[in-house]
Amino acid sequence: MIILKHIEHRIKDVAQLEGLLKHLDETTSKVEGIALQDIFFPKGKEEFVVILECKTEDSYLEWREICPPPPGAKDWYEVFLTKDEHFST
Question: What CATH number labels 2-86?
Answer without folding.
Answer: 3.30.70.100
